[in-house]
Amino acid sequence: MLEEEPVSLHDAPTRSINMIEAINEALDTMMARDPDVVILGEDVGYFGGVFRATAGLQDKYGKNRVFDSPINECGIVGAAVGMAAYGLRPVPEIQFADYIYPGLDQLISEAARLRYRSAGEFTAPITLRSPFGGGIFGGQTHSQSPEALFTHVAGLKTVIPSTPHDAKGLLIAAIEDNDPVIFFEPKRIYNGPFDGYYDNPSKTWKNHPGGKVPEGYYSIPLGKARIVREGSAMTVLAYGTMIHVVEAVLEQKGIDAEIIDLRTLVPLDIEAVEKSVEKTGKCLIVHEATRTSGFGAELSALVQEHCFYHLEAPIERVTGFDTPYPHSLEWAYFPGPVRIGEAVDRLMKGY
């Protein structure tokens, strides 16, 4: 069920920072609290990461706790599995989600199964961070959204924040978790939210701080969704960058829709989804990944199973296309105001 954030957060001093800075703060906070937390990956040390998420941490904590790896994703994940079994809490970074595939065997066959194969004698407290999704014209090798691959694997948890506040709190919770967590960071909103209702890349980046984030330590429980805005006309399920796109479209159209930010895909807050859809009777699912076998398909099945007798219209999905990720045409690939708006109109008409 949905829960309020800890009351102490309301009294904590806050700063306006973007998602990159929030992630850096989360890593800094956990490294200070727990000497077993270590960071590894390509360029995470001296350079501070390709997006600067680990900037300054090697200088502060030393090369034994923040260190660069070879360009070998299988090796990065494999080393993290060994570190976790030894008792450390590694936070490996895969520079782009598109590079994660050489490490899949280590994640699926080793990290996800370690607790079960050892009858609980060993755990795999690994938090694998990676930028994902489009927005930087990275094309097919820097812009993929492979979250559905990991939601299919028993033993893995999958987290995708949409705000700096959630990025920090969820990352701290992920690092503290004793099971492996895939922590995908939507790079399109790394530097602050964009104008939202966009038709072209000139409106992508808006270099303002991004959001108020409490100072110091706090965590947001994994598996708890967030109501972005309450409404009664329909339920919109989304995560990551798409939260901001959907919110802008609905505001422009003046629709009283309820937006649920899933935040954690696995474990999923199905109770929050069910409660909302039972109230509104309509459901729109939006994500950037390809449509076929995307996580939206699982959401659609769950909504049908749990809320069938409350539905007043067919469930709608707006997603990326079933094509290789386009380079120059990525803004046509994204679920945007036109396609989302058309789906909203169909739901409002009840067909």
Automatic annotation (TrEMBL):
UniProt cross-references to SMART domains, sorted A to Z:
Transket_pyr (SM00861)
Per the entry, which co-factors are needed? Answer: thiamine diphosphate
- Classification via InterPro entries: THDP-binding (IPR029061), Transketo_C/PFOR_II (IPR009014), Transketolase-like_Pyr-bd (IPR005475), Transketolase_C (IPR033248)
Which CDD domains does the record associate with it?
TPP_PYR_E1-PDHc-beta_like
Q: What keywords were assigned to this record?
A: Oxidoreductase, Thiamine pyrophosphate
What GO MF annotations does this protein's record show?
Answer: oxidoreductase activity
User: Which positions fall inside the Transketolase-like pyrimidine-binding domain?
Assistant: 17-192
Q: Which PANTHER family match?
A: PYRUVATE DEHYDROGENASE E1 COMPONENT BETA SUBUNIT, PYRUVATE DEHYDROGENASE E1 COMPONENT SUBUNIT BETA
From the Swiss-Prot or TrEMBL record, give the protein name: 2-oxoisovalerate dehydrogenase subunit beta
Q: What is the scientific name of the source organism?
A: Novosphingobium endophyticum
Gene name in the database record: bkdA2
